[in-house]
Design brief:
- This protein has about 130 residues and is of the alpha+beta class.
- The protein has a domain of about 70 residues.
- The chain is about 15% helix and about 15% strand.
- The protein contains 2 helices and 4 strands.
- The radius of gyration is 16 Å and the shape is elongated.
- The N terminus is likely disordered.
- Bound molecules: FE2/S2 (inorganic) cluster (FES).
- The site of FE2/S2 (inorganic) cluster (FES) has 12 residues, from loops.
- The site of FE2/S2 (inorganic) cluster has 12 residues, from loops.
- Keywords: 2Fe-2S, Iron, Iron-sulfur, Metal-binding.
- One of its GO terms (cellular component) is mitochondrion.
- Its cofactor is [2Fe-2S] cluster.
Length: about 130
């Protein structure tokens, strides 16, 4: 596979949680970085854990119009980031299927995927 083809390949994130985080008291105008890889320990925001995975955080500015709560996606599969769009509802079976049929599955426990298998979202248990 050519490098340009690999770059176009969609990376599969880890699921941090099958449901949103309801985040309150965000300061209007504040710059946030939404975690796209699912590995951050400061969910739903980025802590830099994506380093080396090919993922990048998504920059988002809290709207100036005050809102008391934001429903922020934690499954990382939303089509409207960083907001939950209910994609998580049907996700568990799809994720299990993707991980079961992952072409890199045989390498999962051989440290070929030290943090995250970006083909299926598999994360090693440490
Ligand atoms: S938590 Fe990701 S779409 Fe709802």
């Amino acid at each position: 596979m050519a490098v340009s083809d690999q770059a176009k390949e969609r990376l599969c994130p880890a699921v941090s949680q099958y449901g949103p985080a309801n985040v309150r008291d965000l300061e209007p105008g504040k710059k946030m970085k939404w975690c796209t890889c699912g590995l951050s320990k400061t969910q739903p925001w980025c802590d830099g854990a994506h380093k080396g995975t090919g993922f990048k955080s998504l920059k988002w500015i809290v709207p100036e119009k005050p809102q008391s709560v934001y429903s922020i996606c934690m499954c990382k599969h939303t089509q409207n980031p960083p907001f939950c769009d209910a994609t998580h509802t049907n996700l568990p079976a799809a994720v299990e299927q993707t991980q079961t049929s992952c072409p890199g599955r045989s390498d999962h426990h051989m440290r070929a995927c030290p943090k995250l298998c970006t083909k299926c979202g598999w994360v090693p248990d440490f």
